[in-house]
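tool_call: predict_structure(chain=1)
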Amino acid sequence: MSLLLVAVSAFHILILILLFVATLDKSWWVLPGNDSLNLWKECVAYTNQSSQVWECRNVSENGWLKAVQALMVLSLVLCCLSFILFMFQLYNMKRGGLFYATGLCQLCTSVSVFTGALIYAIHVKEFHQADGSFGYCFALAWVAFPLALASGIIYIHLRKRE
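tool_result:
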């Protein structure tokens, strides 16, 4: 049983790391010159005479992008909350109890990531006027979605034993 708990905890921490990188790193949209844009700032390098200058500005004020930002932060908060809740339930729940609250929290994390990534995919041309392609942070958000969904289902079916 202890090996299963370690595996479930490691799986949860992996999802948490994926969500942190996907939300906070700078590669949601990759421009043709290998410059990257994230959810928070647009930083693009320009060559000015003999030096390279970085120009950073806030991203679009588009309401859809604000929704993506809020949903990705919400997914991080819910994932952290569900891990803390899992640890609390692990030490305070009676034998035979199920981890319903933790599982429900992880399912909400999954829905939040899914919704944020889907909105970004549909409305990306409204956020970034330049041509480009999706970056690895966008892909990490899509990877985190099924992992969080699987984790939530595992927590719902997991029963505490001695």
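agent: The chain has a mean pLDDT of 85. Proceeding to next step.
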